[in-house]
Amino acid sequence: MNKPLIVQKFGGTSVGSVERIRAVAEQVIKSKNEGNQIVVVVSAMSGETNRLQSLAYEVDSVPNTRELDVILSAGEQVTVSLLAMMLNKLGYKAISLTGWQAGILTDDTHNQATIQSVDKDKLYGLLDDDYVVVVAGFQGINQHGAITTLGRGGSDTSAVMLAGLLEAQECQIFTDVDGIYSCDPRVVSSAKRMDKVDFSDMLVMAEHGAKVLHLPCVEYAESKNLDIRVLSSFSPQGGTLVTRMASRKDICGLALKRELSKVSLQPNHIDTVVAQCQLLGISIHYCAKNYLIVNDSDISKLLQVLTNNIQNIEPISALALVGYALSGIKDEVETRLKAENIDVIDSFQCDGVVKLLLLPTDLDSAANWVHAFYIEHESTLSGKKKELIM
Ligand code: ASP
Ligand code: MG
Fold first, then answer.
1. Is 148 close to ligand 1, i.e. is its CB under 6 Å away?
2. pTM of the entire structure?
3. In 3D, which of 44, 101, 30 has the Cα closest to residue 76?
4. CATH architecture of 5-176
């Protein structure tokens, strides 16, 4: 009988040094010795992709997207090799594969590609020969043979899609935090780790800035009903299972997004600008009557075509309240924050989220306040609901 197949993914911090790579190898060996077949997906060493990206931007503020993928994908090639060598050194059969060697075929969208298929026969063959198969995350190859990347943070998606395509028993994402928290614990120290989180809540959290999991991997996992276990590579107990849950919390968490810009436009230009953003592949986080919210990193691209229409560009941040039962919260939270001297610049509500636009200097205090009021004191909300019913 075939042994169970597990896909394990290790992020940049987990492979940030040779010592850490040794710890990863030991974790992989432990899982292998428990009787599993293992595919490991790794990211580049921490900071490496940023370094490569800065080099590219030193040459051109809007680099050719095909060439950008060639440089950005280089970091992962280093880590797959180091990990495979380490496993060999510790006495285990292991082989490294870049995206194209693993037959990871994607569409043609450079810098934001989507995986379409993988060379299953090759990977199954290696696993049957008792190899630990170490695959480079974040990269693939398109139909023309060009290297593609999946968007920053894309190794999670490589892992989850490999798990789906290979019909693995489980996908484990090892990272530098021990699970999914109700808010980034570096900002809100009282944030709580969740044992389980529903796909839909996780999707909204990832969409609005929670960085633990790459958005497309959650979309894929939800569509295939494939559970993802998020674990710490430093102490792999606990963790969070991202799964389909029968009952969900009213408000499960907060997501923060920095490094956004509010681009104010001349009146009546919004439709033209939105169309141009779509052509340029610039994602719009929010579109109001006379301004757009985009990522800071897209500003140089935008300025190349739009100088005449732009009135003003200013930095902005966003705080998203994510949950199942948010009705009535938007106006209330604005009023309450105002009483705390925090101005909400704008706000909106859609399925599963209330989003507040704030000055970057207000983001952390707003997150702490909202977390304390709506998440730590959940009873406040349920209490209020009861009052409403009575
Ligand atoms: N190395 C890539 C990045 O930094 C992919 C990843 O880490 O998931 O974005
Ligand atoms: Mg990541």
1. no
2. 0.86
3. 44
4. 3-Layer(aba) Sandwich (3.40)
